[in-house]
Specification:
Layout: E1 31-33, E2 39-42, E3 61-67, E4 75-81, E5 90-92, E6 102-109, E7 115-117, H1 136-144, E8 155-159, E9 162-170, E10 186-190, E11 197-198, E12 205-213, E13 216-224, H2 230-241, E14 244-246, E15 249-253, E16 261-265, E17 272-274, E18 277-280, E19 282-285, E20 291-297, E21 303-305, H3 324-333, E22 343-347, E23 350-358, E24 374-378, E25 381-386, E26 393-401, E27 404-412, H4 418-429, E28 432-434
Antiparallel strand pairs: 1-6, 2-3, 3-4, 4-14, 5-6, 6-13, 7-10, 8-9, 9-12, 10-11, 12-13, 15-16, 16-28, 17-18, 18-20, 20-27, 21-24, 22-23, 23-26, 24-25, 26-27
Length: 435
């Protein structure tokens, strides 16, 4: 989808979580470690509000999107205290001897992942179990039986409506990691990574919540030290216990960047989600079978609709469009686009208009300025939105959100499967807006 910022619609879930310190804390390839810094928005509850309303900015907590759903793994949303917590991974306080004062790690594992809990975390190479754990109960039981961990008894918990287990593990104060096999004190591995969870240092305390979310095992690890203030421990517990899971709701844009918050619900499979866009097809939004949506979520205030999308560099208007009506009027007049009549619409209750434009079947992009067939530009970016190929059909939905413009282009082709077009319209209908 060659649109604004030349977006690459790689899934947000594939954000790498960097280890907080050596030894490593990152999850294995079979899992997707949540990135607490990925998406945030203000409010006291789950980010996916069915009403699109928001709480006052004085709220003492923030909603944070840790991950988007992908490959059978859920999207994860938590609420975080407004002060003191930040970073990636999410942490608070100072590190001492490689062990953080307070840190929350979250991993989602693909359904079917096999967990190998070493009998002895220091002698992990020689204490690999013959049979891996594949369920929450098996996983928690193996962790509770691990040598030298002074583990608490696993107890039943429910997080976000999903059942699981919770227990606390400790690293001995006198543990010497350099004397361990491979120089690491390892709690568990998976079928693809023997060091899926490696501890940071002596005295480390890990309070774990392990839940099964529709076949995906999700692990919350609240990491601390014996001297961590109890208030911070309680905050970590509240973060884990606030988690909500969603397999199909995605954040296109959020208010933390000054944008209008936009969430959508996608089909269970076939659609990729990125920052400000979604797409489907063998080659994404590219012709001849692709489809996609790109969002301009209120960050831009001035839109320059070119008189001719092929000779755009010389047909840029002197005055930008700044309202829904001005934008639609300019798009309707754009040369060679065979526009539809504008229609009045509402998205999540916000009024606006929709217009459909077409790219000529015989358009020669190579003859156009810089080889692009450009619909419009914004301040500082002339080619903010341009076509992928000949015959592209672009439904442009524009709404006024309390005086700010949200523009969504929904594109497809004559050969795009009707199912994909129907799904695209269902995604548009699912939009929820947070001003």
């Amino acid at each position: 989808m060659n649109t604004r910022h030349k977006l690459l619609l790689g899934l947000v879930l594939l954000v790498a979580l960097e280890g907080c310190s050596s030894p490593k804390t990152s999850a294995p390839p079979t899992s997707v470690p949540s990135s607490p810094a990925a998406v945030t928005s203000s409010g006291p509850g789950p980010a996916f509000s069915p009403t699109g309303t928001t709480e006052p900015t004085t709220s003492p907590i923030r909603t944070m999107i840790l991950s988007q759903p992908h490959d059978g793994m859920p999207g994860i949303t938590v609420t975080v205290p407004a002060s003191g917590w930040g970073g990636n991974p999410l942490s608070k306080g100072e590190e001492m001897n490689n062990v953080p004062e307070a840190m929350v790690l979250v991993w989602s594992f693909r359904p079917g992942t096999k967990f190998f809990v070493w009998g002895d975390p220091c002698r992990w190479r020689s204490t690999r179990p013959d049979t891996p754990a594949t369920t929450v109960d098996e996983f928690a039981a193996a962790l509770g039986a691990q040598a030298s961990r002074d583990a608490s008894k696993p107890v039943d918990v429910t997080i976000g409506g999903y059942a699981g287990k919770s227990l606390t593990l400790r690293v001995p104060d006198d543990a010497v990691f350099d004397d361990c096999q491979g120089g690491g004190f390892r709690t568990y591995g998976t079928d693809e990574d023997s060091g899926a969870r490696t501890q940071q240092g002596p005295g480390q305390v890990d309070e774990l919540w392990i839940v099964d979310v529709d076949g995906s095992i999700v692990v919350f690890d609240a990491m601390s030290r014996p001297d961590t203030p109890q208030a911070s421990v309680e905050e970590m517990r509240s973060i884990a216990q606030s988690a909500r899971f969603d397999s199909r709701t995605h954040v296109l844009s959020d208010t933390s960047d000054g944008a209008i918050g936009i969430t959508v619900t996608t089909p269970e499979s076939g659609w990729s989600v990125g920052h400000w866009g979604v797409e489907t097809g063998p080659d994404g939004f590219d012709p001849p079978y692709g489809a996609g949506i790109i969002a301009f979520p209120g960050v831009d205030k001035k839109f320059y609709v070119f008189g001719d999308p092929c000779t755009w560099s010389t047909t840029k208007p002197g005055t930008p469009a700044t309202t829904v009506d001005e934008l639609v009027a300019a798009l309707e007049k754009q040369r060679s686009r065979n526009p539809s009549a504008p229609e009045k619409i509402r998205l999540d209750g916000y009024p606006g208009k929709k217009i459909t434009l077409n790219v000529p079947d015989d358009a020669l992009f190579s003859d156009c300025d810089k080889g692009t067939f450009s619909t419009l530009g914004v301040a500082g970016e002339d080619q903010a939105l341009y076509a992928q190929g000949r015959g592209e059909i672009d439904e442009i939905w524009i709404v006024d959100v309390n005086g700010r413009i949200a523009l969504l282009e929904a594109g497809y082709y004559a050969d795009t499967p009707q199912q994909a077009v129907d799904e695209l319209h269902a995604i548009l209908d699912s939009i929820r807006i947070e001003p």
